[in-house]
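for the writeup, i need someone to sanity check this before i put it in the appendix. the sequnce is what the collaborator sent (i think, or maybe the updated version? ugh). structure was predicted straight from it, no edits. if anything looks off just tell me and ill rerun, i have time this weekend
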Amino acid sequence: MALPLILPICLILLFLALYMLYQRLRFKLPPGPRPWPIVGNLYDIKPVRFRCFAEWAQAYGPVISVWFGSRLNVIVSNSELAKEVLKENDQQLADRHRSRSAAKFSRDGQDLIWADYGPHYVKVRKVCTLELFTPKRLESLRPIREDEVTAMVESIFKDCANPDNDGKSLLVKKYLGAVAFNNITRLAFGKRFVNSEGVMDEQGLEFKAIVANGLKLGASLAMAEHIPWLRWMFPLEEEAFAKHGARRDRLTRAIMEEHTQARQKSGGAKQHFVDALLTLQDKYDLSEDTIIGLLWDMITAGMDTTAISVEWAMAELVKNPRVQHKAQEELDRVIGFERVLTEANFSNLPYLQCVAKEALRLHPPTPLMLPHRANANVKIGGYDIPKGSNVHVNVWAVARDPTMWKNPLEFRPERFLEEDVDMKGHDFRLLPFGAGRRVCPGAQLGINLVTSMLGHLLHHFVWTPPEGIKPEEIDMSENPGLVTYMRTPLQAMATPRLPSHLYKRVAVDM
C-alpha cells in the first residue's frame, strides 16, 4: 500500500538533490554553508536571519549562497556589492519573488510591492512618483501628520499626570503605534478610525482584524514555501485566502464609495491617496485590483516601519543621555519653550535629523529589504547568479561595516554632521529605503514622520530608564521576522519639560 506513495517521493527527492548539484556544478556560485539535501540551509539559519547572514559573511565573504530548500538565495553584505545589485545590475535583478501568500494578497503582482519589473510596474511606479508622493501632496497632508504627533504627546502627558501612574514607566510602543496607525489610515483612506477618547469605530475594528488575519495567513506557510514537495502537507487554504481577500476588498470598496459620493457632492477631490487614485484611474488605466493593492501596499509598508524606527531611536536615546541632551539643547535653542515643533522647522534642526538618520543606520526596519529575483543570469562580485535566484541586500550589515564606518556600533549622530550621507538610495553605505528601480517611493514621507515624532518626544519630555534599570541594561536584541521589532518592547519614564498648555493636540479634520 505504501510503495506507490514512497516511489514518487523518492523520485522527487532525487530530482531535487540532482538539481541542486547541477546548479552548483554548472555555475560558479558564491561560497556559503554547505546545504543539506532537500532542505538546503533551512535548519542552519538562526531565527534573526540578518545577524546569521552577517556571521556567515564573516566566514565566507561578503557575497554568500544560502539555500532555502532547492531555491538559491544570494546575500550581499557590503556597499560595493550592494551597488552592483541595486545599480549596475538593477534591471536584471528588479523582479520580485512572490510566496504563495504574497501572490494571493497582491493578485499575482497587480500592486507595486510584489509586481515584477515590466510595463505594469513602470506604470504604477509612475503614479506613485508623479502623483502620490510629490512634495506638493506631502505638504498638503502635513496637518494630518502634525495632528497625530500632537495627539501622541497629549496622550503621554495625560498618562504622566495620572497619579495612578506615579513612578511607573510607559510602554513607548503603545503611543508610537497609535500615531503610525492613525496617520497611515488617514493618508490612505481619509479615515481616523479612533475618536478623541481612543474608542475605535466599527470600520476600524474590521480594518485591524483584516490586518491581523493577513499576518496570520502569511505566516502559516513558511516551511512549505521553500520545499515544494512538502506543499501537499500544507495545502494553500484557498477558501481562507478567498475569504480574506473578499473581506479586505469589501471594506476598501466601501471606503472608496464613500469618497466617490463625497467628491460628487463637493465637486472636488481631497488629497488622500484613495481620492487621488480614484481621480487618476482613467488617466493611468488603473484596475480596481491595482487601486486596492496600492492602498494596502502603503498600509503594509508605512504602518509598522515608522513605529519600529522611532522605538529603536528612543531606546538609543534612553541609553545615550548625552545625545538626548544635545538634541534637546538644539530644540530649545530653535523652537524655545513657548511653541511646538512643526515640519517647517526641520531645516533648522540638523542634529535632530542626524539622530533620525543614525537610528535608521543602526536599526533599519527591513534589514534584508524584500528579495529581488534575477530575471537573467548575472554576475555579482565575480560569481554567477543564475536566473530565478533570489538576491538579498543585508542593509543592516552594510550600515555596520567597519571598513566604511568609524566605530560602527556606536550611536553617534555627529558622524552625519561630519559627512553628509544620503539615505534615499544614492549612497550605498546607507540603504534603509533601498535603492534603484525598487527604492521606496514614500521614503520622504517616512523620514518626515520619524523626524517629527522624535522631535516632539524630545522637546516635550525627558526620557529615562525605568526605576532600578541602568541604561546599559536595556535589551537591544531583535525579534525574528521581516521587520525588526525590539525583542523586549521599550519601557521608559517620561518627565514633561514644557509649559502644560503646549501638550494639547492640534486637531485637524481633513
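Residues 288-319 form the longest helix (32 residues). Residues 3-503 form a domain with the Cytochrome p450 fold (CATH 1.10.630.10).
thx in advance!!
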